[in-house]
Design a protein that fits this description.
The protein is mostly helical and 204 residues long. The chain contains eleven helices and no strands. Helix 8 (129-140) crosses helix 11 (171-193).
Length: 204
């Protein structure tokens, strides 16, 4: 979406124009849904609730949007991240995280080579629910722009040019931010699994 279109939508939102809201929803409902589902898992009912709360919260804060400070997408995703955080405060994620950490411990030496991009993770590990849970926890530790960059590049396989258009910045800026985002993710992932409990020895 170009800057002129964004400014028109922003003006419409601030005036309470229904057409502007339809344009906003049509442009961003699907990517908001996708990214929220990647941070929360496959519970479609929970994702639907968070998406709804995101757009309701956006409706209440349209006067706070300033197109000179960032794109509509960045503004909307910031709101979505808050709603995801509120959702997790109501849950008890400690049990799932503990189980995922125990699974991670069982992988032995091959795991850290993958984190540091020195080796490919075996397909059965890449497709595991436990790894997905650990990745979601690590992603939630990152700033919103890092989240959207990593999801767009490595999950949606979007080219840098398209990502730059969504974020209203240059391709060079996108590539530079991606490098920082990857580094931040590795640190966040290591923090997520750093308290992994040691495997218990079984006495016979």
């Amino acid at each position: 979406m170009d800057k002129d279109t964004e400014r028109d939508i922003a003006k419409g939102l601030q005036k309470g124009d229904r057409q502007a809201w339809l344009q906003l929803y049509e442009a961003y409902a699907k990517p908001v849904w996708r990214n929220i589902s990647r941070l929360t898992g496959s519970d479609s009912a929970a994702v639907a609730d968070i998406v709804q709360e995101t757009f309701l919260a956006a409706a209440r804060s349209t006067r706070n949007f300033n197109p000179d400070r960032g794109s509509l997408w960045v503004w909307l995703w910031t709101i979505a991240r808050r709603q995801v955080a509120l959702y997790y405060r109501k849950q008890k994620p400690e049990i799932l995280l503990s189980q995922a950490k125990q699974w991670w411990t069982s992988l032995d030496g091959e795991k850290f080579d993958w984190i540091d991009a020195k080796a490919d993770m075996p397909p059965d590990i890449l497709e595991s629910q436990e790894l997905a849970a650990l990745v979601r926890y690590a992603l939630r530790e990152l700033p919103g722009d890092y989240q959207t960059l990593l999801l767009a590049k490595y999950v949606d396989n979007q080219p840098a040019e398209r990502i730059a258009g969504r974020m209203n910045c240059s391709e060079m800026a996108v590539r530079s931010r991606l490098a920082r985002a990857r580094k931040a993710f590795r640190k966040a992932f290591k923090r997520t699994i750093s308290s992994t409990p040691k495997k218990r020895e079984v006495s016979i």
